[in-house]
Design a protein that fits this description.
This protein is mostly beta strands. 0% of the residues lie in helices and 47% in strands. The chain contains no helices and 20 strands. The chain has a four-stranded antiparallel sheet with strand order 1-2-3-4, with no helix packed on it. Strands 5-6-7-8 form a four-stranded antiparallel sheet, with no helix packed on it. Strand 5 and strand 6 form a beta hairpin.
């Protein structure tokens, strides 16, 4: 590929706003991260040594974290001077080889949750990059099993959502890995997930080219899920 102009994409994937509303978008084909200012004007292109960069998250200090499927690495960047087009890599966390990390989120204590596409497992790290737990099910028919694990996101009540492309379902776990609920939507193609300030859930669908918007009506007593599709765009 030709070197892209600022603001141009081939395959945009991950997306996140920082605390100052600068927007970061990963491109898995060009192996770059495009940065936009709060007015959504192109500002800067991060090249680094990305290889299939995908999911983003901000740590407790506001640093940008990015997982790279092609290198099995998690990078941390100091973006405090992004306004001046200055970005500094401050840490690299090595993930297991050949696991194809896809997405990342964190909890209120700064622990980091990484979805690994091979072999459908979530690794949980502390803020220093030390592995503290693994989430998986030995029974592929279990409601807590992952099938085509992709997106992970923190829920509005501090728990963790997961999305499965092949299983076509959304799951909710507490931060210890205990399943709260499984929503078997039978909708293959679900990929990434995020949550807005109102607690609404946004899920991308790579097979049908839409974004699904849900409300999670579960209560604190871990009652069964009541997911309601609030919007299903017919065109994108």
């Amino acid at each position: 590929y030709d070197i892209p102009k600022e603001g141009e994409f081939y395959s945009p994937t991950g997306i996140v706003f920082d605390k100052n509303y600068y927007l970061y978008v990963s491109d898995t084909e060009l192996n770059v991260v495009q940065v936009f200012n709060p007015d959504i004007n192109p500002l800067y292109t991060m090249f680094e040594d990305f290889k299939i960069p995908q999911g983003f998250e901000l740590d407790l200090e506001g640093n940008l974290m990015s997982v790279n499927s092609g290198t099995n690495k998690l990078y941390k960047f100091d973006i405090s001077k992004i306004k001046d087009k200055e970005v500094k890599k401050i840490d690299t966390i090595l993930l297991p080889e050949d696991t194809f990390p896809i997405d990342i989120t964190s909890d209120n204590n700064g622990n980091i949750y990484v979805s690994l596409g091979r072999p459908d497992i979530i690794h949980v790290y502390d803020n220093e990059g030390h592995l503290i737990s693994e989430w998986f099910s030995e029974n592929p028919l279990s409601p807590s099993a992952f099938r085509g694990l992709q997106g992970v996101a923190k829920s509005s009540d501090g728990n963790i959502y997961t999305v499965n492309t092949h299983g076509g379902n959304i799951q909710k776990f507490d931060t210890k890995g205990k399943l709260i609920w499984n929503a078997p939507l039978n909708w293959p193609g679900l990929t990434f997930i995020d949550v807005d300030y109102q607690g609404k859930i946004y899920v991308t669908d790579c097979f049908h080219g839409v974004v699904l918007v849900f409300s999670d009506k579960t209560s604190k007593d871990l009652t069964p899920p009541k997911l309601i599709i609030e919007e299903l765009p017919s065109e994108t």
